Write the structure tokens for this entry.
Amino acid sequence: MNSSHYLHVQPSDQPGYTIPLKDDRIVIGRSSRYCDVVLDDCCASRVHLKIERKPGVGWLVTDLHSANGTRVDEDALAPVHPTELHTGAILKVGTTQISLCVDDVEAYKLVIDTSAHRPDGMPNSDHMDAEPLALQTAFTPEADVRNDTLHTLMRGSEQSKSLNYCLVVIPTYNEAENIHRLLEEIMAQGRQFDVLVVDDNSPDGTGDIVSARTELSERVRVLRRAGKHGIGSAYVAGFEYAIEHGYAYVVQMDADFSHQPRYLPVLLNMTENVCDVAIGSRKVPGGGTENWSPVRAAISMGGSLYTQMILGTQLQDVTSGFKCFRVSVLVSIDLCSIQTNGFGFQVELHYRAYRAGFHLCEYPIVFPDRIAGKSKMSMRIFGEAMIKVVNMRLLALLGGYRVFLEDDDTAEVERHARATHINAARIQARSMVFPTIDDTVQTHSLAARVIPWVVLAALVLWLVSLVVGFLQGTMTVNSGDILARAVVLLSALLGVQSLFTLVWMLYSWNNPREAERNRSPRTYAEPSFSFTALIPARHEAEVIRETILAVDAIDYPAHLKQTLVLCRRDDHDTIQRVTEVLQDLNRDNMRLVVFGGEPINKPAALNKGLEFAQNDVVCIFDAEDEPHGDLYQVVNTVMLRDEVDVVQSGVQLINLHSRWFSALNVLEYFFWFKSGLLFFSRLWQVTPLGGNSVFIKRDFLKRIGGWDETCLTEDADLGIRLTNAGARLRVIYDEEHTTREETPDSVSSFVKQRTRWNQGFLQILAKGDWRHLPRLRQKVLACYILLTPIFQSTLIVLLPFSITVALTTKIAVGWALFTFIPLGLLLMQFLVQVIGLYDFARAYNIRLPFGYPLMLAAAYYPYQALLAFAATRAVLRQIFGRVNWEKTRHLNAHRSLSLEDGGA
Amino acid sequence: MHILKVNPQPLLQARQTIIILMLLLTVSAVTHGSNMFHWPYFENDEGTYMSQAHAVMTTGKLAHYTYWYDHAPVGWIQIGFWGKIVEPFVGRDAAFSIESGRVFMLVLHLISTALVYAIARKMTRSEFPAIIAVLIFTLSPVALTYQRRVLLDNMQILWNLVALYLIMGERRTLLHVVGSAVAFSMAFMSKETGVFFTPAMLIILWMNTERHNRWFALITWLGICFLIGISYPLYALLNSELFPFGSALGGSSPHVSLLGTLSFQLGRPGGYFLDPGSSFMITFRGLTAGQDWPADPYMIMGGIICMGVITLLAIREKPLRPLALMALAYSLLYIRGGIVIDFYVIPMIPLFALCIGFAVYYLAKLSTIALQVLPLPRLRPVLGYSLGVLAMLPFVPVYSSTIVYINDQTTAQEAAVVYIRENLPRDAFILIDNYAFLDFYGDFENAHYYWKVDGDPAINSIIEGDWCNVDYVLSTPQVAFDAYQQGLTIVRQALDNSEIMESFFGDGRHYEVRRVIADQAGACDEVSEVVMFVPSPPTQRR
């Protein structure tokens, strides 16, 4: 496959190098993340152009909307229009010249040079013995080569010899008291760390101390500058030094021991393996500050909040000055143009990296106050940072810091760039194989950043109006008129609730691109995890056969799956039925587990099943479920790709027409699994799990002790406890792969089911596990989700009452108007449900009779009343201590339906 | 061939864009700001909106007089908030003066300018049409005149532009849609003529969303607009003022009503729009060739022609469709046959400016392509764009007219107010042009807007329906016009039986303080009583 074509790259100020064109496509630009050939050229764009081979045509060059354009033999290229590229033609990209050559015999030798121009590659700087090693690193696709290389180097070198691997940049000004001890501690952290002290001519002789130290070890360097130029420019100087000397990683830290050297290895480790920038954070759980005065803490907190609000990043600690970068990050964020000093510098650095699409993550550190020396915080620095933040946001809004332009080709470029990024990553022996879609650390999408704030703003607005309402209530409403005030309060609560519901209902449709991420993967990874399916069945003789057949039909290697049907010993019909089916099938990996004991409920059955489960991942199917044949493949891929421990796959009620309430029940599931779960898990990091089609790594289940047998909604409870245990959860909903279920077959079983859920939620609330969730918003949201059914139905039932009061009593017109807001929002909800109905029908290939929305409208309020009844019943049952498990009966309605429609 | 896609110029860097925008905004601020307190004269409606903003913020009512659903109140509530914001710095009187309102309008204009720029840039992905559009939008004498005035239409422009901007571009998210719907609701709640844009907005929304969320977007958008819009009739209903009295649902005691006013407004005839005597033609002639009016034939005629061109081009050029749709949708307002008032043109100004900018851009592109025959490739775009700029030359003389920057129409108005303050007794019953309402509010308890003696039973009853009880009239050309042309009996009789006390002259406009002489020829027998509310709708300017 080797082509005889080469690219010769000739920067204006550096020696040229040659690259063989092995792939059919090659992207060139400044960004090491997205480009195959990385140019160190200020005038080139991050993603500047691509060169590709078209069979039968030859090589084509396309300018990717670069800022300064591309010239081919002095003719400017039109953006995004492929132009033919002849051998010998000279491309001008910024100040660099690139030419396409054939059969250049000298080329291969020069390839060695390229690693020097890949900022991510292992360094091959001026040390003579480093060169062959660098070559090996750059072209051996094995994951741990770098470490081997490192060890080789470590064994072969003397104690004081530098590896040029990770540079710790420390700007100093009058740090003579700290610096010596600091250097020693850093050196003690490991051989991979070198130190560069950037000293601004400290009067107390810090520079001299360090200079003396450099004599002893090559690993300590010093950059002495003539005057006090500020911390920002000191860092920039240090970073540039690191880039020039071929370091792969750069750490920035302060000299005052507020950044403790003991964190260095872990930050480096994170940057090597998890993300592009690892930030030592005082504000994530586990991190913190010591010995801070309340004033300083308040200023710091206010500053962080302010910055987060304006910039919309989700970083907790935006001003942290302790972080580790991949050098590629620093190369691509255009250091020379950063002008801020002080705290603003840290913020700008974060923000630019973030806007450039790099992955930032935070690691908790403890931040003691200065041990010695004097803090340099000043009002001026503070003010500068405040203004700079707004400035940055404006620039970003106007398109600054952006890597990609909005164009049709963008998506393609992005995809390609991602792919090449993966290749690059593999070649460079990174341990990260897939770009991670990470729900728990950071989500860098517009919607994810904006929506929480919109929601929060709406809530705050409502709350304010509420307070104002009460204050004014004493004036405008008759002061004795409790009724009127109660109505206003009720409307406010219901308004907030309806608005919030509307937001999560619509979340999944907000951004088409975002929504794509929630779907199943299109291509599957090699089967790697093994699965144990637990099927608890009680009085399910009618449906269990099909379920077992469906689970058996799941397309996955037989030795990687196990199926356990769980029946209690008093349930003879089901046991007999299951035995028959298992005999028919005659599989080694399918077993019936019969057990006794108390209590008689699903979590107890599941716990019994867990004892017999042998495989990596445990999943739960209900006795009437119909899992999709690819489900294991999907989950296996997602678990590998996103490195998650728990996957909740979509569950969908499907029998729209069975009963008068079926359609609304179906839609409830549709919105909850497709949109709600995603909303809560992605933005609020709370994932209430569903009762089935949930996949949990067995280790985690064992660790938290399985299911809670006293809880009526063991699934929701499990979600909270898994989150507490540090499990990473992921929700996927793809119409194709949802597990199909049926709605309860009668009003009474529907009410029983809802009662059980609501009562279970109350139990969980009382149990209080949610209080241990690490973040405040998780606690609030968990609490909210648990209380919503009861809360909402109470309010909706009271709505007609409040409208009547508004219309009939003498309440100020403004407040009367106010009481109509919830009604309007409920109307919106209903309209959204109607649209969702058609969306659902299309996705599941169900035909809707004409005028169906009218039926929906007619059923709407009775359905709400039913929910309210169930909620009341749950509260009463809980009060009177009745906690037995009321079971729902199943009739296979979803199966007959799916057969009729020919879909499965 | 899709001309717009041929050889697109790369967009400038953010920094350069900011610089250009800052320059344009400076031009905008200077042209609109200089002489803004002296030209044009303070208009009746400006006084009305400022006084109603004042009423909202000081008394909590929607107007000092009975609110009769002339417009939805959101427009002057916004002015009221502006007044509240500046009040701590300048004091209440100044905060709610027309001057203050005009400063607010300047702010709105600057934001609108930036939006026009951003929209043009987003539509064509080029700076050239954006610059042209902004220059026309800000320099046209029509724009300078109307956008300085405190008019609800200026708020409507801003909100409409925001609503449009948010749904421009591909793959809109629901957040954009929500923002757009809220902005659009603000627009038509500020000035109801904004609803004419609805069909265009819906089509644009349809074009810019994907199958995945299209229906959700449409329903969300419509739902929000509906919910915000419905609050207005609901407000009337809760006040028992939705249905006109005498109707089945309206009861029998006289009161103002939303539907009554609406049917009155809709019923005002304007004539078939091509009829030379129709109000559309009068307005059209005034705006293109009028003597007393701020005329800008190039923007109006050019705008109409370019609108046609853009509409035709839009059939092939997808990026132009939103603009063509918006312009066409709003044109329905002019040709519907109802009354057309001169400031109905205001929301059209940005659209005309954009149409002209795009047409010129298209011309420049076409000529660049046509110039392929020329040898020097680099010269082609230069020549092409120069040609585009040349096409703009006819605008220069009109746009360099200095009237709006130099003439002074308001000093005389203020002098008249001062004269009344110094010379007339505090308890006198004075009919005033509404520009002076807040100047007298509180001091002169019986200084009333002249429409109200004929239109508002509460005011009519003060003088017992008898013009003889009117003591003075602050007469402006508008007062005289309405008195004789709109059938305001009491005002006309008062004017007929009055003598000039003092006259003020400012740039072609006379302002007179007149004393009513009641004892002439025993004419005081006639009493004209008001039972029905006769509103004071906007009329043709004089």
Remarks:
- The mean pLDDT of chain B is 88.
